[in-house]
């Protein structure tokens, strides 16, 4: 069992840290809103600290799951950040969906301190975090990844090293690109079915047994047809992720016409008041009066 710190107890980090504690690891937590950390300790045990630096002191591993590049820099290398007290040979594992650029930057800073850094964004959503069934895509040095992998499997069903630093974030971008296109296609299909006088549930029941099947179809079609959009990843966060994809595509020369279009559709959802709706809300813009 390892001594670990977990920084960031949002909808993903809270259950992920809980799985680490349930697996027998010695867990110290930090959260920007202290009340959230206090709640976690009451539920799972362990201890909390007032700063990321305090949480990281003496730990073999430091895990993080925060909002964006700036949040990550703040808890890792900012004043009272984890890097101030990170032990030599310790490994910092970041589960934030962030840019490949910040992953490479922090890996260099960690290496200069004699520490490891693995960028390890996740897929599977809140339900995957709660059930310990996340898919984790990693970038980093093989030795650092090998140390961290057994601990990551405390809350993962799949985990793989995709390449050098930044590769985990690049793989997560592929994930988000694919999801954006799938959700828009599903929204259009369900909208078409209703306009054609078909029963959308019956349509999905038959086509999901064939080549059109997807996780989104199986898990989101019913709530989409019911107009309920509070079951998953929020539009605000998806737009943040798609911005990362589009920024990276400008650097590497990839052409992402569908991704750019769906990003604009999500901007319309935000204007409709759906910033906190989940990503399946794309159907709402098709069926508005």
Description:
It is a single chain. With 289 residues, the protein is of the alpha/beta class. The chain folds into 2 domains: 3-163, NAD(P)-binding Rossmann-like Domain (Rossmann fold), CATH 3.40.50; 170-287, Orthogonal Bundle (N-(1-d-carboxylethyl)-l-norvaline Dehydrogenase, domain 2), CATH 1.10.1040.10. It is built from 13 helices and 9 strands. The chain has helices spanning 13-22, 34-44, 52-56, 69-77, 100-112, 125-131, 142-152, 167-195, 200-207, 215-226, 235-252, 257-271, 282-287; strands at residues 3-7, 26-30, 47-48, 61-64, 91-94, 116-119, 122-123, 134-139, 156-163. The strands form 2 sheets. The chain has a 6-stranded parallel beta sheet. α7 (142-152) links the parallel β8 (134-139) and β9 (156-163). α8 (167-195) crosses α12 (257-271).
Layout: helices, strands, pairs:
Layout: E1 3-7, H1 13-22, E2 26-30, H2 34-44, E3 47-48, H3 52-56, E4 61-64, H4 69-77, E5 91-94, H5 100-112, E6 116-119, E7 122-123, H6 125-131, E8 134-139, H7 142-152, E9 156-163, H8 167-195, H9 200-207, H10 215-226, H11 235-252, H12 257-271, H13 282-287
Parallel strand pairs: 1-2, 1-4, 2-3, 4-5, 5-6, 8-9
Antiparallel strand pairs: 7-8
What is the helix content? Answer: 40-55%
Arithmetic mean of pLDDT? 97
- Which strand order does the major sheet show? 3-2-1-4-5-6
Tell me, briefly, the overall form: globular
Strand content: 5-15%
Strand/helix succession? EHEHEHEHEHEEHEHEHHHHHH
Determine the CATH topology of the largest domain: Rossmann fold
Annotation field: number of helices? 13
